[in-house]
Q: What sequence folds into this?
């Protein structure tokens, strides 16, 4: 028979993987490979589930620093008093019961040469393929007044669901009727394009019910609403008429925490509750692992496999990626990345062909009040000529209007996407 | 001895490569297409709570007809007409056949939300 070099390398790599598995985690020597996933959110938990489900002979370990999963989608409802944070909080027990090892720790470094992840506790995890799904971290460089942890605990972003969401809700509850909520939106791209405008609806819904003399000032760095513009404006000019003062092109220069003032290029805006969402970039571990090029904010990946363009053997998912054309940074999208990535990781470990024409679709629901919801949808197909994933022309679109029927679909979406990630 | 073992391993690898079906033939393509639907319709098309509806175990022809009607706009929808237009006829056929082949059983469900405030 022919002894070809590529096959030898493949065999050698596979054998090394097996040896290291038995040496490291104490599992049987028969594991086909080891996959480590950094981040147990919509991208990482879903990828882990499907690598294990579609290839039970691969060892899968998720590194997650939080003890529970808290959903960012629907978390604006907590601000509006239309859901509790507990309604959006789920454990990792069932994912673990599926055979996925959950390590509660923080990944602090990646040695791509040795194929090891170093954890905050000092332990290391060896991998054959690494999946990095760290979400976003915030850039405070341009906001001197918010650099300290103390300042950040008073002027919240609440753009990662959890304690900040609950704390912002408490600030809104403590605000006097007749107060002003000042909300700053960073320049796109950021996590969840319709999220800011949904947040305005939710806070308005709360004020309308409980603090009707209060006002909302929206300081948007962007030139206009970046998502579902007509649908949101219908709510703002209808249900919430007179409550919302929307100011586009409001570039933030600083925040005066003591004076409760947002400073813009030409104006200062004072409020009773400030909510400043800083600009974002790929999560810190993606940067320290060399997955983000100097001067860039996001990870460039190959959309066939979600493998990093910068470091071989490492795949990146979700909000941390440099989004392809018309692709939002959303939970649905991270879930779809995860399944393309899981299938590709299995194929690469086993030396099988990778899907040459992956498809992805996106659905983002936004709540106008406690029940009425509208969507934006899109379908994305890999284009081999351009070597990227592109929106399919003629597909996708928006709701005609917000409806309670879509409210039931939004909660159904949540139950099913949570079940995929954590069930 | 060692070399002989290595040779044997490589023979297995080579045979696997030669016998490997193309991607489209081995069912993983259909699974990958169907998996794009799981996000809203549940893992394997088994919807937790049944909204949006479960797709697992529905008849292939029924599913394909419904998808084609969404695509053409004949069947009213909030969102499915917009999704169905993103897939080719061949892709819709693979998706319909995939879900028709899944055993219809209750969704395993998500872990219950923790609840509380």
A:
């Amino acid at each position: 028979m022919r002894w070809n070099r590529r096959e030898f390398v493949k065999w050698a790599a596979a054998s090394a993987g097996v040896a290291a598995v038995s040496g490291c985690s104490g599992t049987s020597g028969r594991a086909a490979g080891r996959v480590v996933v950094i981040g147990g959110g919509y991208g990482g938990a879903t990828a882990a589930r499907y690598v294990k489900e579609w290839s039970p002979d691969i060892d899968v370990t998720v590194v997650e620093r939080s003890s529970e999963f808290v959903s960012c989608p629907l978390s604006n409802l907590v601000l509006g008093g239309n859901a509790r944070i507990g309604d959006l909080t789920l454990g990792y027990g069932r994912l673990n019961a599926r055979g996925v090892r959950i390590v509660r720790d923080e990944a602090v470094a990646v040695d791509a040469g040795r194929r090891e992840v170093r954890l905050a506790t000092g332990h290391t995890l060896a991998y054959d393929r690494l999946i990095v799904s760290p979400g976003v971290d915030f850039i405070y460089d341009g906001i001197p007044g918010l650099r300290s942890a103390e300042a950040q605990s008073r002027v919240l972003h609440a753009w990662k669901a959890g304690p900040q969401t609950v704390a912002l809700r408490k600030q809104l509850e403590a605000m006097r009727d007749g107060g002003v909520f000042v909300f700053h939106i960073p320049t796109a791209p950021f996590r969840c394009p319709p999220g800011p405008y949904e947040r305005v609806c939710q806070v308005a819904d709360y004020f309308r019910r409980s603090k009707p003399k209060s006002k909302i000032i929206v300081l948007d760095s962007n030139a206009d609403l970046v998502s579902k513009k007509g649908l949101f404006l219908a709510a703002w000019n209808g249900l919430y008429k007179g409550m919302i003062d929307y100011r586009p092109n409001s570039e933030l220069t600083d925040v005066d925490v003591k004076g409760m003032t947002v400073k813009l290029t030409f104006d200062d805006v004072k409020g009773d509750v400030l909510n400043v969402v800083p600009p974002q970039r790929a999560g810190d571990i993606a940067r320290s692992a060399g997955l983000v090029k100097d001067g860039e904010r996001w990870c460039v990946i190959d959309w066939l496999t979600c493998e990093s363009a910068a470091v071989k053997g490492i795949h990146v998912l979700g909000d941390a990626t440099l989004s392809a054309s018309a692709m939002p940074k959303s939970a649905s999208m991270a879930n779809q990345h995860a399944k393309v990535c899981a299938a590709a990781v299995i194929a690469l470990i086993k030396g099988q062909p990778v899907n040459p024409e992956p498809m992805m679709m996106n659905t983002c629901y936004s709540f106008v009040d406690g029940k009425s919801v509208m969507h934006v949808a899109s379908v994305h197909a890999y284009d081999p000529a351009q070597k990227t994933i592109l929106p399919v022309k003629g597909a996708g679109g928006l709701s005609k209007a917000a409806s309670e029927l879509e409210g039931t679909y939004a909660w159904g979406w949540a139950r099913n996407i949570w079940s995929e990630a954590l069930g | 001895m060692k070399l002989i073992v290595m040779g044997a391993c490589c023979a297995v690898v080579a045979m696997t490569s030669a016998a490997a079906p193309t991607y489209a033939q081995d069912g993983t393509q259909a699974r990958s297409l169907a998996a794009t639907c799981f996000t809203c319709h549940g893992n394997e098309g088994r919807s937790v709570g049944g909204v949006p509806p479960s797709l697992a175990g529905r008849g292939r022809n029924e599913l394909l007809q419904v998808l084609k009607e969404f695509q053409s706009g004949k069947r009213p929808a909030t969102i499915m007409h917009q999704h169905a237009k993103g897939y080719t006829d061949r892709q819709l056929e693979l998706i319909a056949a995939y879900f028709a082949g899944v055993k219809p059983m209750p969704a395993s469900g998500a872990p219950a939300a923790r609840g509380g405030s």
Confidence is low (pLDDT under 50) at residues 1-21 of chain B. The domain at 26-100 of chain B is CATH 1.10.760.10 (Cytochrome Bc1 Complex; Chain D, domain 2). The first helix of chain B runs from residue 2 to 19. Residues 5 and 111 of chain B are 47 Å apart (CA to CA).
